[in-house]
Amino acid sequence: MTAEHSPAETFPEAKVLVVDPHATLRTVVAQRLRQDGHLAAAVSTAGEALELCEGQTPDLLVSAELLEDSTAQRLASALGCPSLILTARTGAEPVVSLLDGGAGDVLRKPFGLEELAARCRSLLRRGNGLMERVSVGPLEVHLLLRQVTLRDRPVELSPREFALLCALLMPPGMVRSRQELLRMAWPPFSGGPRSVDTQVLTLRRKLEQAGLGEGGGIETMRQQGYRFSLEALPPTPEISREPLSGSLQTTLAS
Predict the structure, then answer these.
(1) What is the per-residue pLDDT for 55?
(2) pTM exceeding 0.90
(3) How far, in Å, CA of 209 to CA of 131, rounded?
(4) In the predicted model, is pLDDT for residue 247 greater than 60?
(5) What structural domains and CATH numbers belong to the chain?
(6) d(CA 76, CA 232)
(7) How far apart are CA 121 and CA 7, in angstroms?
(8) Angle in degrees, CA 251, 58, 192, rounded to 5
(9) Which of 129, 121, 139, 128 has the alpha carbon at shortest distance from 57?
C-alpha cells in the first residue's frame, strides 16, 4: 500500500444506484462500491429504480445500457443524475454515441471491478453535491466520520445500526419496507426480516437512551415497515431537514 488516501477516506458516502438485469453482476458491483464507502443499492429494472428513488435523486447511476423496460440514458434523465453506462457493444461508435447522448462515462463489458470503482470515483469527484453531514432536528449524522451526535453529544452505534439509521433518514419520513432496509443496510445475501426487526429494536433503544424521545424517532408502520418520524422528535428551536446530496439512500453495508 502507498501513502495515498483510500477511496473511503477521500469521499463521503455517495448514493449509487446499480441497475442491471443480471443478478450476480449487479450484486458484485454494488458490493464493490460499498467497499469504497458508498451507499449502493442494486435493482434489475428501470421501473424498480424509479420506485426506489421516488422523490429522491441518487448521486450516480451505474446501469446496463439496455434494460428490460428502458435504457440507461432514459433512466438517468428521469432520475436527474450522472451515469456510468455499461455496454456490451463493441467498437468506438456506440461509446461516442452514448457520451454524446449525455452519459458521464461508458465502460465496456466485460470489465474489471477496480476500473469500474475508479471511474465511479472520477464521476463523483466532478459533482459538488456530496454532503458530509445530515441534520434532522437535534440529531446530526456525520457521514464522512461515520458518527452520530444528539445535541453535540456522541451516540455510539454499531456499523449496522449506523447504516440502518442512514437508510431511515434518506429522507426522513419515508416508509421503508424490511426488504428495502435489507438491501440498503446489509451486505448481499445476508440477514432477513427478523434481522431488520432486531436491529431496529437496538437502534431505538440507543436513540431513546441518548434522549431522542420514545421510540428514538423510529415509527413502525403496520404491514409496511418503518420510518423515521419527524413528528416524534423533541422540539428544538430550529430544525434542519437537509436531504443527503440527492437521496437514494442506500447504505453502506459493512
Answers:
(1) 67
(2) no
(3) 27
(4) no
(5) 7-126 (3.40.50.2300), 133-232 (1.10.10.10)
(6) 35
(7) 8
(8) 30
(9) 129
Q: What is the mean pLDDT of residues 142-170?
A: 84
188-202: per-residue pLDDT in tens? 667 788 889 999 999
User: Beta-carbon neighbour count of residue 226 at 10 Å?
Assistant: 23
Residue type present at position 170: M
Indicate the length of the chain as a whole number.
254
Alpha-carbon distance of 29 to 11, in angstroms, equals 18
| pLDDT for residue 56 | 75
Provide the residue type at 108 as one letter: R
Cβ–Cβ < 8 Å for 70, 50: no
CA–CA dist 60, 54 (Å, integer):
15
Residue with the three cell numbers 423510529: 218
CB contact set of 179 (below 8 Å; sequence gap of 6+): 193
What pLDDT does residue 12 have? 53
Residue keyed to cell 451515469: 83
Cβ partners under 8 Å of residue 116, min gap 6: 29, 32, 62, 84, 107
